[in-house]
Amino acid sequence: MVTKTGFAFSNLEAKRGRLKQGVSYWTYQQWYSLDDLCKECVRIGLAGVDLVTPDQYATVQKYGLVPSMTSGTPPNTIPIGLNRLENHDRVLASLKNDITLAAAANVPNVITFSGNRKGMPDGEGLENCAMALNKIKPYAEEKGITVNLELLNSKVNHHDYMADHSSWGIELIKRVNSPRIKLLYDIYHMQIMEGDLIRTIQDNIHYFGHFHTGGVPGRHELDATQEVNWHAVANAIADTGYQGFLSHEFIPADKPPIRSLEQAVEICTV
Fold first, then answer.
1. pLDDT tens digits along 175-187
2. Strands 109-112, 66-70: parallel, antiparallel or unpaired by DSSP?
3. Cβ neighbours of residue 151 closer than 8 Å, sequence gap 6 or more
4. Is the N-terminal amide bond of 54 cis, ω within 30° of 0?
5. DSSP secondary structure letters along 88-110
6. What angle do CA 71, 83, 197 make, to 5 degrees?
7. What's the burial of 97, exposed, middle or buried (CB within 10 Å: 0-12/13-18/19+)?
8. What tens digit of pLDDT does each residue of 34-53 get?
9. What DSSP line would sit under 16-82, residue for residue?
């Protein structure tokens, strides 16, 4: 089956509910090989595997799953990013290569980052990121690949990261104004920084190209120990008509690892 975006989702029959759910490979790789995790994903009813490299695309796809988000290739990394002019040439070259490989493999999304502040005012960083994304957007549009700049918390996990509030990221996407330049709205990170999840999602869904989950606090299971009502958030996302992926990016702690993923899928099935 081919969707309106042109990407084949042969595992659509197995997905559950109104959202295409996935999992980030790095959170499970201490317990499972990529092959074994993909087998579990098919059994559970997931549609994609996030943050995989080009050499892993074929493994994911042979199970009928989508490599739903490519992992950034250095120097396209969290601390470096696009907010400094001196980084633009090499980061954009890396990002262009990621787009090229993603398009060749029918991978819908690539990732990028703002970079750390290192004393830079947020307004200057915003201008520089917009400049960089405006340079890459014609190529992303030509190839039909969505570039997602990730929102991360600077309070607990990524100290000094610039794109740490949705308002900053939304203003950036407005300045670029391309259907192929979006935000990766990481619910875990944004709950830590600002909360107000459902209203933010409802009001700004057209700026968001991808979602990640993770229990708050601790980035563990999406269970009753966490402060986010995950079922309500998932329902709010689905109600907007969102067609992208909601990918689980939590680190299992209290349960058998695959049971934690099964539980997350159950909670977010709406």
1. 999 999 999 999 9
2. unpaired
3. 163, 164, 165, 166, 169, 183, 184, 185, 186, 189, 190
4. no
5. HHHHHHHHHHHHHHHHHTT--EE
6. 65
7. middle
8. 999 999 999 999 999 999 99
9. -TTSEEEEEGGGTTTT--HHHHHHHHHHHT--EEEEE-GGGHHHHHTTT-EEEEEPPPTTSSTTTSS
Q: In this structure, what are the phi and psi dihedrals at residue 18, rounded to the nearest 5 degrees?
A: -90, -5
Q: How large is the angle between the packed helices 257-268 and 34-44, nearest 10 degrees?
A: 40
Please state whether the predicted TM-score (pTM) of the whole model is above 0.85. yes
Region of residue 160 (left: phi > 0; alpha: psi -120 to 50; beta: else): left
User: What is the phi-psi region of residue 17: left when phi exceeds 0, alpha when psi lies from -120 to 50, beta otherwise?
Assistant: left
Task: Quote the mean pLDDT of the chain.
Answer: 94
User: Cα(149)–Cα(124) distance, rounded to whole angstroms?
Assistant: 17
182 contact partners, CB below 8 Å, separation of at least 6: 146, 147, 148, 149, 173, 207, 208, 209, 210
Q: Residues near 68 by Cβ (< 8 Å), separated by ≥ 6?
A: 20, 22, 47, 48, 49, 50, 107, 108, 109, 210, 245, 247
User: Would you state the structure tokens that stand for residue 247, as one six-digit string?
Assistant: 């990918």
The answer to whether the beta carbons of residues 172 and 149 sit under 8 Å apart is yes
How many residues in the chain?
270
Residue 148 in tokens: 């997602």
